[in-house]
Structure formats: C-alpha cells, structure tokens
C-alpha cells in the first residue's frame, strides 16, 4: 500500500516563497501523484489518500500542538521528541494520522 498526502489546494495553502520555496508553484504535484497511482495500480498496489491536516504538528506520543513545529524543526512540547518536521509529517502520513493522533 502507498499512502500519499492529498494535495488538493496546496498552492493556496503555501502562498509565499518563504513558506514553501520558490519552486513550489512550478512543481506538478498532481502529475506526479497521478503517475505514482497509475504505476501502483499496474503493479496491484493500493493507494490511499491522506488529508494533511495536523500531520506535521502531531507527535508520536499523540500530542498535537501548533508550537510543536517551528519551521523545519519538530519538537513535541509534551514529551520533547525531536525530528525534522517533514520527516515527522511523512511518518504520520504513513500511519494515516490526519487530524487526530493514533
């Protein structure tokens, strides 16, 4: 199974170069995801779409707080767990955490 972040409206959510890097608006998110889904289907692999809400703010301990994420740094305000924020979000997507802790 492949889990991917549902990217609908991503360009509206990250409007500035500071938030997302200058290349964000030129990247073909939909095209990439479509190709991955197509190749997965051809190989008999199921694809699940996960809403990205709170995935980069939720800790493995279950604590969710906006202050957990500061730029690229994730540090849980409750347990102190520290990780790169994007990696933390990817782990939560893999666990299908979307808007709540597991």
TrEMBL record:
Is RNA-binding a UniProt keyword of this protein? no
Query: From the UniProt record, which GO molecular function terms apply?
Result: DNA binding
Q: Which UniProt keywords apply?
A: DNA-binding
Annotated Cas12f1-like TNB domain ranges read 29-93
Question: Matching Pfam families, A to Z?
Answer: Cas12f1-like_TNB
Domain of life of the native organism: Bacteria
Q: Which PANTHER family match?
A: RNA-GUIDED DNA ENDONUCLEASE RV2885C-RELATED (PTHR30405:SF11), TRANSPOSASE (PTHR30405)
NCBIfam families recorded:
guided_TnpB, IS200/IS605 family accessory protein TnpB-like domain
- Annotated protein name in UniProt: Mobile element protein
**What is the species listed in this Swiss-Prot or TrEMBL entry?**
Geobacillus proteiniphilus
Which classification does the entry list for the species? Bacteria, Bacillati, Bacillota, Bacilli, Bacillales
């Amino acid at each position: 199974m492949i889990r991917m972040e549902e990217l609908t409206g991503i360009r509206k959510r990250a409007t500035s170069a500071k938030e997302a890097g200058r290349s964000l608006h030129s990247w073909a998110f939909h095209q990439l995801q479509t190709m991955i889904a197509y190749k997965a289907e051809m190989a008999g692999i199921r694809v699940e779409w996960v809403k990205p809400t709170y995935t980069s703010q939720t800790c493995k301990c279950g604590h969710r707080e906006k202050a957990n994420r500061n730029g690229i740094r994730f540090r849980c305000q409750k347990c102190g767990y520290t990780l790169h924020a994007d990696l933390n979000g990817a782990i939560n997507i893999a666990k299908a955490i979307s808007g709540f802790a597991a």
